[in-house]
Design goal:
alpha/beta; nine-stranded mixed β-sheet; four-stranded parallel β-sheet; 14 helices; hydrolase
């Protein structure tokens, strides 16, 4: 939409998730081009010019778009497998299948993953893709292309693995890259696709997979590469007790100390899971402003444990929410993670004081923007920020009797998305994608899942 064209949204509840948690029981939002121009209580200002559309949002809550901070799209075509395994056994069971993916499969899986998130209110997504079988095609290009077509703001965390079974790692030998190959391919992906501008739709991060699937040298050189290119760093950290034991046996220290020794703590770093963190670990993350992608459903699915999110927040650690790969979170939806984050954390030491509804919403919006390094552009509804916002319908049977709209959104059933805007462009209407054919995606993902299963069975 041209910068001088406007959309006016009125008669809605608004949760801005700004620094003061400003909310309006009935208010308006004016979008001009790809920016939020103004918002406030009551009716929109009179005399606005070039208004292309007015939306009566009675019965709706408007929030910033949800920000997903950790995912593995390729896993969409291996959902429902190894359902009773812990992390290490789950990885051992699935790596031989994942090692046989190709570009066509990855494209279909990215379509499924992104479609499911986008129709549920995600406006900024990321994918940590680290499996690059030899001869599998342009996997990074395929994923980025799908995000562009779907109209979702996107960060590709270009992953890598170079520690295979022969080196004491978990991936099969044929599923990893060489150190030199991984670094060269990652640098090329950054140079070809990363956009550093304020309203960037595509960014790239450097993302070796995990301590037990990459060498120390890949971690060190990956951090050096990211900082030379001016991009962010992402990996898995402190996900399970077994990972902690692995690090102590192999490196003589726990995961956080190991990451610090390799240059992997800092305000340009975010890590997935961080379940098994002691007070010293949390203090190190807070001191360095290292971010965390909290994935409550996946942590529960793999019996990894309960991350100390309330303690991290109290210490000043940036925390966002992640779906994680759909082989460990089959629903693939981030809006359900708002509720799950709140509920799971109340099972921990802080009990009912762990998280409240507004803290959960902040994790899924502004917290995610912080973790991705984009808090100046997205994550809250404020004039001058990018127009990434969602209209949640809260006047139906599922929510109408809950007086507080934020409580309804977080504690209640998954709310329908009447409209979702990214960069000022509407991509969802009445819970259906406007930018992709959901039924066609369902057919293609099923076909690719079946094809991968056949290839793996022959393997």
């Amino acid at each position: 939409m041209a910068a001088d064209r406007r959309i006016v949204i009125e008669n809605c509840s608004i949760a801005t998730v700004d620094a003061h948690d400003t909310e309006y029981a009935s208010g308006y939002v004016v979008v001009a081009g790809n920016r939020i121009e103004s918002l406030g209580a009551g009716k929109a200002p009179e005399g606005l010019e070039n208004v292309d559309r007015r939306i009566d949002a009675t019965g709706h809550l408007v929030t910033p778009g949800l920000v997903n901070t950790h995912h593995h799209y390729y896993q969409w075509i291996t959902r429902g497998l190894a359902t009773d395994h812990n992390l290490f056994n789950w990885l051992v069971a699935l790596y031989p299948t994942w090692a046989r993916i190709d570009e066509q499969m990855v494209r279909a899986a990215a379509e499924g993953s992104l479609a499911m998130m986008a129709r549920g209110g995600v406006t900024t997504a990321m994918d940590h893709h680290y499996v690059f079988p030899h001869g599998s095609g342009d996997l990074s290009g395929a994923i980025i292309g799908v995000a562009r077509e779907m109209g979702v703001r996107f960060t590709l965390a270009r992953g890598s693995m170079d520690r295979s079974e022969k080196d004491g790692g978990l991936p099969p030998d044929f599923a990893v890259e060489t150190l030199e190959g991984a670094l060269a391919a990652t640098e090329e992906t950054v140079r070809q696709h990363h956009d550093a501008s304020f309203d960037a739709m595509t960014q790239v991060a450097v993302a070796p997979c995990s301590p037990f699937s990459v060498s120390t040298e890949l971690l060190k050189q990956g951090a050096e590469l990211a900082r030379r290119l001016g991009v962010r760093l992402h990996t898995h950290g402190s996900e399970t007790v077994e990972e902690e034991q692995f690090c102590k046996e192999l490196f003589g220290m726990g995961p956080t100390d190991y990451f610090e020794s390799t240059g992997w703590l800092g305000e340009d770093v975010w890590m997935a899971h961080c379940v098994h963190m002691n007070d010293s670990d949390i203090a190190a993350f807070a001191r360095t402003k290292t971010g965390v992608a909290h994935c409550p459903s996946s942590n529960a699915r793999l019996a990894a444990g309960i991350a100390r999110v309330p303690d991290m927040l109290a210490a000043g650690v940036p925390v966002g929410l992640g779906v994680d790969g759909t082989a460990s979170n089959e629903s693939g939806e981030l809006h359900t993670e708002l509720r799950n984050a709140l509920l799971v954390n109340r099972l921990g030491a802080h009990r009912e004081a762990a998280l409240n509804a507004r803290q959960a919403l902040r994790l899924g919006t502004y917290g995610g923007a912080q973790v991705l390094g984009r808090a100046a552009e997205i994550g809250s509804l404020e004039p001058g920020k990018l127009a990434d916002l969602v209209l949640w319908k809260l006047d139906t049977l599922a929510h109408a009797s809950i007086a507080d709209p934020v409580t309804a959104l977080v504690f209640g059933a998954a709310a329908p998305v009447t409209a979702s805007f990214v960069n000022g462009r509407q991509i969802v209407e009445d819970n259906r994608l406007l930018t992709a054919d959901e039924d066609a995606i369902a057919r293609s993902t099923r076909a690719e899942a079946q094809r991968l299963a056949r290839i793996a069975a022959q393997g």
